[in-house]
Amino acid sequence: MKVNRIARKGALLASATLVATMVVAQAHAAAFYIQEQSTKAVGRAFSGEVSEMGAQQMWWNPASIGGISGFQSYQGFTAIIPRADASNLGSTITRPGVNLSGVTGIPGLPSIPGTTSAVGGAQNQHDMVNKGYLPNGGFAFPIGDHLDFGFTATSPYSFTSNYASDSWARYAADKTRLRTFDFQPVLAYHTGGLSIGAGPNIEYVRATFANYLPDPLPNLAGIPVVGPTLSGLLNTGDGHQYLKGDGWDVGWSAGFQYHNDQVDLGVAYKSAIKHKLKGHLIVDGLGGLLALGGANQEVEGAHAQFTTPWQVNFGGRYHVTRQLTLNGQITRFGWSKFDAIELSNLGATADQALGQNYHNTFSYAAGFDYAVTPKWTVRGGVQRDLSPISKGNRDPRVPDGSRWNFAAGSSYAINSHFTMDAAASYDKIKSVHIDKTEAAYVGTPFETIIQNDGYLHNASALVFSLGGSVAF
C-alpha cells in the first residue's frame, strides 16, 4: 500500500521538529543562555564583570587577568530554582483531509475531510523547568613581566525540563535535557593600566530531547464504508520521538581593560559558535499502517547545525570613595545568528532548514560594591534582560519573556589568601503568549498542524550562589 512509503517518510519528517529542539529551552537568562558564571557576578546582577580585574571575570573578558600579581583560583556553585505555569488558552490540532483510496491503494474508499479540534490533555503545566545546579571555576597566573595565562570552565547553555505525557504541550515538548561545557584558555598582555586578552572557547554540547507525535487522522469508526478493520489500521494513536546528540565546536573571545585609581573600563567580544551535533533518533509508539509501514524506527547519524549568539560587553566601574564603587554594564546579544536550524542525514527525509527568527537584544545592569571593613564587602545590583523571541515564534519548550533581576551579595576575606563569596538574586519574568505553530509529517498527505495557544505566567526564579577565591 502507498501508506507504507508515506508512513516512513512522514515519521522521519516529523522527527525534524524534534531535532530542531536540540538547542532551545527556557534557562535563567534571555532565551536559553545561562549567565551565572561566578558568585560575585550573581551578587551585583552582572554589572561589573567586563571591567573588573581578576580570574573570576574571565568568562566576560579575557583581559581581566592582565596585570594580576600572583596565582589566582576561584570555584563557585550556583542553585537555580525556577517557577512558572504554562497554561493552555486554545491550542488546536488540524488533521488533513485524506483520500483513503489514494493512500491505501484500495478502490472505492471515501475521502476524509480535514478536521480542527482542541489538543486536549492537562490544561496547566506547573514548574516544567527543573531546578538547576551549576558549578564553575578557573585559575590564572603570571608567566612573565607582561603576560598572564588563565583557564576557566563554564556551562553557558544548560537546563532540564519535563512536561507531563498528557500535557496540552506534549506535541511540542516532553522531556528535555541540554548541557553545554565551555573550556576557555586565555592569554593576556598588560602594560601600564592597559590589558588585552584573547582565547578560544572550546564547547562540548550534549542533548536529549523528546516529544509526542499526533495521530494524523480523525476517528474513522463512524464511517460505514471504512469498517472496523480498516479503521483500526488507519488510526495510529499518538507516537513518540526521542533524540540524543552531541558534538564539539570552537569559538573565541577577546577584550581589553583600562585601569587607573578612579575608573575601570572594559570591552569584550565573544563570538558566535556554529554547533554541529550528531544524534541518535528513535520513533516509536505509532500503530496501524504507520507501524506496518516502518514508521517506528531508529536512525543513526541525524545531523543538526545551528549557531549560538555572539555577545559584546561594555562596562565601567567608578571608585567614588575608597569604600564605594559603582558598576555599570551593557551587553548586546547577536541572537539573530539563531535564525534557523539546518537538518540533514535524516534517512528518507530531505535536508531542510527550520526557522527560529530570533532578534538581537540588549541587557542593562547597574550595581555597587561597598567595603564595610577591609575584610567584608557587600554588593547589589539590578539588571534588565530582554527576550529575543518575537511574536509567533514562542513555543512551549522556550516560553521565554523579558525579565528583571534583583541581586545582593557579599565577600569576606578569611585571611590574605582566601575569600568567601555568597550571593542571591530574584528574577521576575514577564508573562507572555505561547504562539508558535508546529507541524508533523511535513510534506506528506498526513501533514498535521498544531497551533500552540498558551500563556506563560507566574514565572520567576530564585538563585543562590556560594564560591571561594584563593590568591598567592
Automatic annotation (TrEMBL):
Keywords for this protein: Cell outer membrane, Membrane, Signal, Transmembrane, Transmembrane beta strand
Subcellular locations according to the entry: Cell outer membrane
Spans through the membrane: none
Top-level taxon of origin: Bacteria
Primary localization: membrane
Entry annotated with the keyword S-adenosyl-L-methionine: no
Residue ranges of coiled coil: none
Signal peptide from the UniProt entry: 1-29
Name recorded for this polypeptide: Outer membrane protein transport protein
Annotated family: Belongs to the OmpP1/FadL family.
Topology relative to the membrane: Multi-pass membrane protein
